[in-house]
User: Fold this.
Amino acid sequence: MSIIVTKFREVSGSVLPILGLVLLLHFFITPISTPLLIRFVIGTGLVIVGLTLFLLGVELAISPLGSYTGKALSKSKSIWILIISGFILGFFISVAEPGLLVLANQVAFITQGAIRSLTIIVVVSLGLAIMVSLGFLRIFYNIPLYRILLVLYGIVFLLALQTSKEFLAIAFDASGATTGILAVPFILTLSFGISKLKKDSKASEKDSFGLVAIASVGAIIGVLILERLSIPQNFNVSLTSTINDSPSLWMPFINQWFFSFTESMMAIAPLGILFLLLQKWSFRLRKKEVRKIIFGFIYVSLGLFIFLVGVNAGFMDVGAYLGQTLVLSHPTMIIFIGFILGALTILAEPAVYVLTYQIEEVTAGYIQRISVLIALSIGVGIAISLSLIRVLIPSVQLWHYLLPGYVISLILMFFIPKLFVGIAFDAGGVATGPVTATFILAFIQGAAFAFDGADLLIDGFGMIALVALIPIITLQVLGLMFKVSTRKNEVKAHEFND
Assistant:
C-alpha cells in the first residue's frame, strides 16, 4: 500500500500543477467551455490513476525484468546472444512506451493517416532495438561512449541534410518520446546488469550509463530512413479531429475504451510473453516472485489503458484549445506561459529527482541536487519558449536550435569526466515525461494550427526534441564545473603537502 501512495504522490505532483495552471487561465485569461473543462478534469484524474498503476507495475515487473535479464546476459560469453537479446528487448520495450504511442497517434491524426501510427511505432522500435544491441557490443568490447556517439550523430547529421523539415521534427521528437517512463528504468537496470561483464568496478560504473543515449539515436535514424521509403511528401494536415467539442461529458471517454484497451494489450502482451519464456529457460524464479511480476504486468496494462483513455478523451483537448486561443489573443504572453509549463513539468517529474540524487552522490555532494533542479527547470522552460518562438516566427527552423546544440554537446564530451557523458545523454529521456508528450505537445500543436503562417506538421513537432536536448548540455556544463573544481582542490592539496 505504501508503494501505491508513493507513486500516487509522485504522479499527482507532476500532473496537478498543469490542472492548476489551466484553471487559472480559464478564470482569468481564456475561458474554456464547461463540457471541455469538465472532461479535462476527468481526464486529469484518469491520467493520475493510470500513471500511478503504470509506475507501480514498472517497479514490480518491468524493472525486475530488466535486472534479471541483465544478470543472465552478464553470465553469457556469446556475443550473438547479447546481440539478439538486445534487439528483442529493445524492440518490445519501445513498442510499449506510452510517450511513443501518444506521439505516433498524433502524427497519424495530423497527417490524416498518411503516416500511420503503427509505421512510426515499428520504425522507431526497430531503430532503438538495433542501437540497444550496439550498446551491448560497446560494453562487451570496451568501446568509449563518446566515440560511439560521435559516429552515430555524424550519421544523423548526414541523413538530416537530405531530410524534409516535417520528418526532421518527427524524428527528433520520436527520440525523446521513446525514452520515457517505461524504457528508461528498464534500459538502466538492463545496462547495469550487462556492465557487470567488467571486472573493473570503475569501468562498470561508467558503462552502466550511456545505453539510453545510444538507444535514443536509433529512433532518430529510423524515422530519417523512413522518409526514403514510399512515404508521401505532401500531407493534408488537420487538428480539428483531435479537439472534441462534443457537449457530452462521457461519450468521448466511452468511445476511447476499445481503442485504448486494444493498444495497451498489444503493447504490453509481448513483454509478458517474453518474461514467461525467460522464466522457463533462464530465470527460474520462485513462485512468489513470479506472482509479483505477473501482478506487475497487470498493473502496467491496466494503467496504460486508463492513461490512454484520459489523455485521448479529455487531457490533450484542452492543451490544444489553449494553444489555439492564446496564440491569437495573447501571442507574447504564450511564450511566458510556455516557460511556466516547462518549469513546472520538469520540477514535478519523478525521474528528475532520481537523477539529481544520482548526480549528488557521484560528485560526493559537490553538485547539489537543488542546483541541478533549478538549472533543468530553467532549461526546459526555455526549450518550450523556443518552440513557441518557432510558431510565431516560422523563419526560425528547428535545425537552427538542434545543430548548434548537438555540436556544443559533442564538443563538450572531450572536456568533461567520462562518467558525465553517459549521465548527460541519458538525462535527455528524463525530461520528456508523460506530461510533456501529451499536454505540452498538444499545446504547441494548437498554437501552430491557429497561427497564420505557421505549419502544423513542421512547427507543431520538434518541442520534445528541444526538451530532450537541454538536459544534455546542462549536465555537461555541471560536469565541466565539477572537473574544474576537482583540479583546483587537487592543486591546493598538493601545495599544502609541499
Summary: The mean pLDDT is 83. The longest helix spans residues 287-329. Residues 2-497 form one domain. The two ends are 58 Å apart (CA to CA).
